[in-house]
Write a structure and sequence with these properties.
mainly alpha, Growth Hormone, Chain: A, 78% helix, 0% strand, globular, transmembrane helix, MFS, transmembrane transporter activity, MFS transporter, MFS_trans_sf
């Protein structure tokens, strides 16, 4: 049965902007932690860099929610893109002394991410509905997979070929140009209608209101963030540590992203709301199982099993989490009016989970840095998607959007 959902011109433009930003991140972001690691081989340092990002992301979502709701959200989106470019410009300028600036650089990157994704998520909600949201999310995953194939593979080859820091500097410069193109393309998106006054305490109000679906969604998102906060930087770093070659990390990203390309395309085409609950549970369980081979050995082969397994099963888990959360913003005219505050609540919930996961990682690694310790920690944190399903399973059959 073919889907009847369609995407209009504004949705496609938003996808294009998203694709450019993800491409720039795929080119440079994949190797950013490797760049830091080569300056100082310290998992804890990378963990603190991640903490700085996540704190800045959460605070930026909350503090700039007023700007996005009451003023021009498109300017917030553009500011996020510009600051991402500024971040890489500073990394190029600082060079080998970058590890001395972990906190300010992490905060700057977090602010840029927060500005872009807050505006993007609000505009995404406005240009989609319950009928085409899974389709849009499928395309987001598809574009992410395409850029994940091209970006890291190209970067890895270039960095390995040029040796030293020269390859990194060229890749960071290319990313600057892509961010600039993203800003230009964003001007073709229509200026969105401003909302009413911004309610600073709305996230707390939702969590304190008896019967609010966000009392289930928020802890579900926090559980999602526990895995994300650590796996986002650790898997790629482990691939480099195991192989000592940027080209192999690029190859790893090429293989896993190529598989994601297929799985997200299939999910976007066939994954219907009625399949969300069982699909999410199956996906969460399988995402945990593919970590188990690391107990035997942390090698390129076992990490590839993890990467391929995650690429295959992640759409089953993540698409219901994304779509059901945004569906809650469209259950009534009141929730539509509060969409900015609810997007902020969504991101704050993810931030809490990411920080919890990263703090656990930092504390454990300060005590022991053995390969087995890291693997056991990944198994424990990697079980958090199952907890997500436990919290949100009752919300996966939500009503129609307003």
């Amino acid at each position: 049965m073919k889907t009847t959902a369609k995407l209009d011109r504004q949705s496609r433009l938003l996808l294009a902007v998203n694709g450019l930003i993800v491409l720039a991140g795929a080119l440079s972001g994949t190797f950013l932690n490797v760049y830091l690691w080569k300056s100082k081989q310290d998992y804890v340092m990378i963990g603190w860099f991640t903490v700085a990002q996540q704190v800045a992301v959460g605070l930026t979502f909350w503090l700039t929610g007023k700007w996005v709701k009451e003023y021009n959200k498109m300017n917030a989106l553009r500011a996020g893109i510009v600051l991402s470019g500024v971040f890489y410009l500073l990394v190029l300028w600082i060079g080998s002394d970058v590890i001395r600036w972990i906190w300010p650089l992490g905060l700057l990157l977090g602010i840029s991410i927060g500005l872009f994704w807050l505006a993007f998520n609000v505009v995404y909600f406005e240009v989609t509905d319950r009928e085409n949201r899974d389709l849009f999310n499928g395309w987001v995953g598809l574009l992410g997979s395409i850029t994940g194939i091209v970006g890291p593979w190209f970067s890895g080859l270039l960095i390995s070929w040029l040796k030293g820091d020269k390859g990194y500097r060229i890749i960071f410069t290319i990313s600057l140009g892509i961010y600039a193109l993203g800003v230009v393309l964003s001007f073709f998106l229509k200026k969105r209608e401003n909302g009413s006054g911004y309610h600073w305490a709305e996230p707390v109000t939702q969590l304190r209101t008896k019967g609010s679906p966000w009392r289930l969604m928020a802890p579900g998102l926090a559980a999602q963030g526990i895995r994300e906060g650590v796996f986002a930087f650790l898997v790629g770093l482990l691939v480099f540590v195991a192989t000592k070659q940027e080209a192999r990390l690029g190859q790893f990203s090429l293989i896993t992203s190529a598989i994601s390309l297929l799985t997200y395309w299939l999910a976007g085409k066939w994954y219907k709301p009625k399949f969300r609950s069982p699909g999410m549970l199956v996906g969460a369980l399988l995402l945990w199982i593919v970590i188990v081979p690391l107990l035997w050995k942390t090698s390129y082969g076992t990490l590839l099993i993890l990467g391929i397994g995650s690429a295959v099963f992640m759409p089953l888990y993540i698409l219901p989490m994304i779509s059901s959360g945004f569906d809650l913003m469209g259950t009534s005219n009141e929730t539509v009016e509060k969409r900015v505050e609810l997007v902020v609540l969504r991101e704050l919930s993810l931030m809490v989970g990411r920080l919890v996961g990263t703090f656990i990682f930092i504390v454990v690694l300060m005590l022991s840095k053995t390969s087995l310790t890291i693997t056991v920690l990944m198994l424990i944190l990697g079980a958090s998607p199952i907890a997500s399903w436990v919290f949100v399973r009752k919300l996966l059959h939500g009503g129609k959007s307003a």
